[in-house]
Write a structure and sequence with these properties.
Length: 346
């Protein structure tokens, strides 16, 4: 193992990332970035120490700190797995409007180069009991004699991600899940010094890697000229996989203190779920508990002509669909069309 001071040294390169941002640099932005580093450290512990492919466990992901553009209507969990393993997931469906599993490898932030997504599975395509209970096995091949729910696990997969979207916070019932590895494993041993070293080194490097990924997500539309101008995008290259039935609309916004950005869009003829959210210049969700920084298909007011209109600005304009910048003059607006008949560009 290294000395503690040597692990701390691994954090230092993150400070230079401030020079790479497209957002105007200020003491406030520096403070926001340092806060993001703190969030990353908290998330990285769970990702590196708490779950492994041999001893899987679903851990809170992204929403625990609302970093890196999580859907504010979503609850995410992730567990590490091994592509050659056999895993059983049991749970209760709840009533989230969207619930599904996704497999992939090299979760962004954990490696220098993010991996890719493999397969997405809608929970509602499983056989679910009348009480909402379900059981599903993930493996490379269906276990002999198993006639229940089964999902293919890509041999290169190293995580299973659970997504669920809710329209009605506090009223919808979240899914409950547990995961276990079925192929025989010995009792989980005490973590060796070598294992602690590997996990701790990865935790420290996660801070820089994740912020680099976040800055790249903001820089891409900025450099493409999508400033105060929406365009359609998908995040398949960030691990959603080709089967992810979702399209995104997004823009970088840049506003003066007395300026507003007005969003107007047709809605798809049919759509299971949609939303729009305000992201800061470091790709973090703007405060959703005390600011109206997101709207969805249940909370948004649709005008009589069938269009959705929203106003993004710093102070309440007296309009129902106000999107609060949270005192950010630079950031992103991101929305989703999920299982939609078409994908309008606002």
């Amino acid at each position: 193992m290294l000395k503690w001071s040597e692990y701390v040294e691994l954090l230092k390169p993150a400070e230079a990332l401030l020079d790479q941002t497209t957002a105007p640099v200020s003491e406030q932005l520096r403070a926001d970035m340092y806060r993001q580093f703190g969030m990353s450290m908290a998330q990285a512990y769970f990702l590196t120490f708490q779950t492994t492919g041999d001893y899987p466990e679903f851990i809170p992901f992204e929403n625990s700190a609302f970093m890196c553009q999580p859907n504010p209507d979503a609850v995410y969990y992730v567990s590490h797995v091994s592509g050659d393993g056999v895993y059983r997931i049991v749970g209760e469906r709840g009533n989230a409007i969207v619930a599904g599993f996704a497999t992939g490898n090299r979760m962004f932030g954990l490696e220098d180069q993010p991996g890719r997504g493999f397969d997405n599975y809608d929970v509602d395509n499983l056989d679910i009991g009348p009480d909402g209970a379900f059981e599903v096995i993930f493996s490379q091949t269906r276990p002999e004699g198993w006639t229940g729910n089964w999902c293919y696990l890509h041999p290169e997969a190293d995580f299973i991600l659970l997504r669920q979207f809710n329209y009605h916070w506090g009223r919808d019932v979240d899914m409950r899940v547990a995961i276990e590895r079925l192929d025989p494993m010995p009792p989980r041993p005490r973590m060796s010094p070598d294992e602690v070293h590997r996990h701790l080194e990865k935790q420290m490097r996660y801070v820089t890697r994740l912020t680099q990924t976040a800055m790249g997500a903001v820089r891409r539309p900025h450099d493409q000229g999508h400033v105060n101008r929406m365009h359609l995008h998908n995040f398949q290259e960030m691990g959603n996989g080709e089967s992810w039935p979702q399209a995104y609309f997004e823009t970088v916004f840049e506003l003066g203190a007395d300026e507003a950005l007005v969003l107007e869009t047709q809605l798809p003829e049919s759509v299971l779920y949609w939303n729009v959210q305000v992201i800061d210049g470091l790709w973090n969700q703007v405060d959703i508990l005390y600011r109206q920084s997101s709207l969805n298909g249940a909370t948004a007011k649709v005008d009589p002509d069938g269009k959705f209109r929203a106003v993004l600005c710093a102070t309440d304009p007296g309009y129902a669909n106000w999107l609060d910048t949270g005192d950010h003059h630079y950031g992103m607006l991101i929305g989703r069309w999920y299982r939609a008949s078409d994908h309008p560009t606002p």
